[in-house]
Amino acid sequence: MLDDRPKYVPALSFVWLTPLYDTLIALLMQEKAFKRRLIDVADIQPNATVLDLGCGTATLTLMIKQAHPSARVTGIDVDDRILSIARAKIKAQSAAIQLDKGLAFELPYPAGHFDRVLSSLVMHHLSTRDKLRTFVEIHRVLKPDGQVHIADFGPPANPYSRVISRLLARLEPVADNIEGRLPPMLEEAGFERVQTHDQFQTAFGTLALISAIKGPHSAREPRRG
Predict the structure, then answer these.
(1) Helix, strand, coil % (nearest 5) of the chain?
(2) Integer Cα distance of 35 and 120 in angstroms
(3) pTM beyond 0.70, yes or no
(4) Rounded to an integer, what is the distance from CA 39 to the centroid of its chain?
(5) How many domains does the chain have?
(6) What's the CATH number where 105 sits?
(7) Which of 17, 29, 51, 164 is deepest in the core (most CB within 10 A)?
(8) Is 190 inside a domain boundary?
(9) Tens digit of pLDDT for each residue in 64-101?
(10) Which of 176, 177, 185 is nearest to 148 (CA)?
(11) 12 inside domain
């Protein structure tokens, strides 16, 4: 039976770059700084359930577990190659982390399952339709008062970022990011108190950290497009 689901964009856009992912991201993206900040603003409480959506090689996943040992941390990604790297890293650290395979816009978890969803450098890989579908799914799997925290490309903050963003747009579906459409898309998916609170300048452009909350009495069923 043929799989007719949409294809995904590999990390760094090309499969042959996957083995170099950790090295390049560490060198060019202020990785530790923005991921530490993402974890800090997530305000993860003891014994919280946390999803790293699009976990890649599990760098952020492991950082979450190290910062919050009592948290029940899950990582999910659709790329078998990158998940094999993630599994090896988790095994090397003997970390109690669950790794799953799945699409960001078809999450295999029940409604109201997580306290926090974190995501790093994933959304710019998705089409406009799939970004919104992903935000709807995040809203679904979060508990009331749950939070989503996203680190991804945002509107360019300087001339260099404007130039590099135009080049990146030739490889990735990044227009929604650089045109500032992620916050209103989160609101369309049902989130409240959406805010962009940090920026980081990187070799590939401006990263924005965006947070939002699922309301305590959220009864809205956003459209699934």
Answers:
(1) 40, 25, 35
(2) 8
(3) yes
(4) 12
(5) 1
(6) 3.40.50.150
(7) 51
(8) yes
(9) 999 999 999 999 999 999 999 999 999 999 999 999 99
(10) 185
(11) no
